[in-house]
Amino acid sequence: MFSKRIISSFSTLTSQSILKQTVTRSYFKSNTFLKSDQLSRHVETEENNDHTPFDFTADNMIKVKKILSKYPPKYKQSALIPLLDLAQRQNGGWITVRAMDKVAQICGIAPMTAYEVASFYTMFNRNKVGQHLVQVCTTTPCMIRGSTAIVDACRKHLGIGVGESTKDGKFTLMEVECQGACVNAPMMCVNDDFYEDLTPESTVKLLEQLANNQKTKIGPQTSRKAAEGPNGKTSLFEPPTPPPFRADF
Questions:
Q1: Which UniProt keywords apply (predicted)?
Q2: What predicted TM-score, i.e. pTM, was given to this entire model?
Q3: At residue 17, does pLDDT exceed 70?
């Protein structure tokens, strides 16, 4: 009888615990895609499905072999990220299912492993993007320095919303997290280039230059040099003093 009571009590507590967990999970669950990760989710299209052909070009196969040569033969999977990046660049800035399958085959791993990596790192776009992928940082330092106005300037000038592409396929606008240039906030990244110390006016100027295939000024859009403060360089005018000891091995 005592055992039955224990089992009954345990069952009740377990049911309550499961219910509590279910309620908690439901409370925190969100079905909406985050603006910063919607390009990392697979969307079945005519350009991206199990039958979309992909193979590396002859020139890129030379690069594939060079990348693989950096790792021991038994650890070809270590080349997964650089090979996914190479496939994405060949494919115009985004990576398809068949491209990931090809990379998995070269690395000797299961396709699912390639899918997991490509979905985890936001550097990989699993949906088609424009020629210029504009990623505006809106994390706290950039937000304090006016990133909201930068996003608005991009939206107004390009005529698209965040996560959308222009009809001519030239631009895709994204809102992302910290890009590591907080001291030069606000900033945005376009493909591989960083543009910092932005204003709405300098942002529009950059977008116009990109649209017209003109050369842009990479880095700070002010007179600032790299990440120096407003007073310029204030230290390290001479080579640092070497340590007073020498390690003998």
A1: 2Fe-2S, Iron, Iron-sulfur, Metal-binding, NAD, Translocase
A2: 0.72
A3: no
